[in-house]
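Budget justification aside, the reviewers requested a transparent look at the raw inputs and outputs of the sequence design task funded under Objective 1. We therefore reproduce one unedited record. The lines immediately below are the structure tokens for a 183-residue chain.
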């Protein structure tokens, strides 16, 4: 369980909760896990960044069978864009992206879902991931969004190789398709 409270005077207060790797079922070579997250962001003091009242909620289900893994991902954002996202959050203790879908789904009204399928061949771990992000242009326009994005589909082929205990090699091929029409 992780719990963070980041308070920045006259800007914002972000309270973040995440529970990881809660084993629901674990028997022989099959395991089912569940993770949940919730971020509540509010403006404080002089509100120098404007209206920031919003939230992020997410869920992640993992299905493991031997060396194979299937992960289902879901995130939803409230009426305002999550501020301090991307590399800003990594300096605050979060991973590169605070949302489970690790995608551009932190804008106002965004809803992201997807799946990742991977297999472990010892030190070689290939995986493929698909994420769909349904963006809401109306909420982005009124939700303090500086980088308005259309809805999109993202595909990633990721190959990781562990060379030794301190060295790893990672290659990622990705395709991002922005939709020309969306809500």
């Amino acid at each position: 369980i992780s719990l963070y409270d980041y308070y920045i005077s006259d800007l914002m207060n972000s309270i973040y909760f995440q529970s990881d790797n809660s084993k629901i079922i674990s028997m022989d070579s099959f395991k089912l896990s569940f993770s949940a997250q919730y971020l509540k962001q509010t403006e404080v003091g002089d509100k120098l960044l404007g209206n920031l009242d919003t939230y992020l909620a997410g869920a992640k289900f993992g299905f493991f069978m031997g060396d194979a893994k299937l992960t289902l991902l879901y995130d939803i954002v409230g009426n305002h864009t999550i501020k301090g996202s991307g590399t800003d959050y990594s300096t605050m203790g979060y991973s590169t992206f605070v949302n489970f879908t690790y995608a551009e789904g932190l804008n106002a009204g965004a809803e992201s879902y997807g799946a990742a399928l991977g297999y472990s061949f010892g030190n070689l771990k290939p995986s493929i991931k698909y994420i769909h992000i349904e963006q809401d242009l109306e909420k982005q326009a009124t939700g303090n969004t500086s980088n308005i994005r259309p809805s999109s589909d993202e595909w990633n082929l990721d190959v990781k190789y562990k060379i030794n205990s301190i060295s790893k090699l990672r290659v990622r091929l990705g395709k991002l398709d922005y939709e020309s029409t969306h809500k």
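Helices lie at 87-90, 137-142. Residues 16 and 123 are 33 Å apart (CA to CA). Computational costs for records of this kind are itemized in the attached budget.
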